[in-house]
# Entry
Amino acid sequence: MRALVRALRRAFALIRAFWAANLAEELQYRANLLASLLGTLFWMGTAVLTAAVFFRQSPTLGGWGFWEVVALLGVFNAVAGVVEAVLRPNIGRLVEHVRRGTMDLILARPIDAQFHVSFRRIVIWRATDVVLGFGLAGFALARLGRVPSLSELLAFALALAAAIAIVYAIWLGLMSMTFWFVAVENLEVLFDAVYEAARFPVSAYPGGLRFVFVYLLPIAWITTVPAGTLTGRISWTAALLAAGLAALALLATRLLWRAALKRYTSAGG
Amino acid sequence: MSLRDWARRYAALMRAGWLVDLQYRAAIVLWLILGVAQPLLMLAIWWGVAGTDEVQGYDRAAFARYFFALMFVDQLTLAWDVWYIDRWIREGEINFRLARPLNPIHEAIADNLAYKGKTGLAMAVVWLAVAAVWPAVRLPFEPGRWALAALAIALAAAIRFLTSYVTGLLAFWTTRATALYELHWGISLFLSGRIAPLSLLPPGVSAVAAVLWFPYMLAFPVEVLTGTVATTEELVRGFAWQLAWLALWSLAYRLVWRQGLKRYGAVGG
# Structure
């Protein structure tokens, strides 16, 4: 237990050092904050309008009302913010590290390589997506006239943390493919394609797809479950299941990472 | 220059484009997957909304036909040029292109023809394969209408290409040309019929769309292909709008290209 605490504390200290250096760099480009804010507002607007187009023809989508779907879009945006701020600028570069051999430099460091590859950088401006996403979810809850109880908020926090862990595992799993197929360049496009599906509650999809999104491509756990806990549609049980799934996913990425590193022979190898 | 000279030039440029693409086969497949993900998703949601009933004349099969036609036409009218032109101008790659005795737009057009020949064929094969097992997406055999659709697709591709190319040329003045085109994309989600057939949008919105270029880049050829647009009057009106917008965007191209070159010479000279 004490070893775990020490490891965690060390991890947080490292992240702080990484991101402080990175922040100093990014703060030179403050105009990006405005561009990022406007971009986020625009895309959130199109997402809400898209939902509105469907709701013109139907009072519910998969049993969810309009504002429930808007709350889900808020969660979608917040998770997308984490992807853009942390996952894409880090794991997204794994392909480059492997192809150009800079992976050597990472392996030579006295810290865990998976950790370094995952958390070295942060694009702080994209944190606006997270903030505005929560804002949108909060606004939707207000329109629903719903104040989540403490227990629901806790379930939401757990489900959201699980969602982020699952997204992380998908990214690492996907990008690790580069250790086997060096030439594949824009693998993250596959994530983008599938993640689009998280804009709607899984119950809105036909039966076959619903099965796929719950069990095969775990889209349901990324937005439907956290948003559902927030609106009281989904119970604690689902949040606990999500946490269990996330733990399994993280364990799987660790095993995959070990197997992948065994394949790595450096650029000259 | 004679027609034969032009044919030879285009053959050479297309061959070059084809060979470049060959190096990125895996990347092209991934882009293709991303390209069809969004329409398929919209189809899935409409499928659920329509249920066993119909939505303003669209039942499940009609939605399936619409979105399959949309995926096909989208691949044939795809416009990525803004990213290229923006980079050509910002990084000076346009310099050696200007030194050639051929306007760079011909290289871009030839690349488009080479790429779309491949992806269009791939989409057609996939569509045929799906139609073999899923009757909903079958189109009735009507060569006359297909010929009209081919013409509408060609005009749509030309308009969409010009929107992208001209926006790219704005890089002579601004570093945010690609951001501008993303904005254009966001609007086109609604106005060119990507989220729903235009008749399912609020009447005010589809009326505005009808006089802009958006539906003539995608929705119009799609509806010619599926047979939704069938009366002579509708066809004439649609083709007239296509020609009008093609003329206007060609004019915009001339203007922006000439002024841009002047400015570019002034900055670099």
Observations:
- Chain B is about 80% helix and 0% strand.
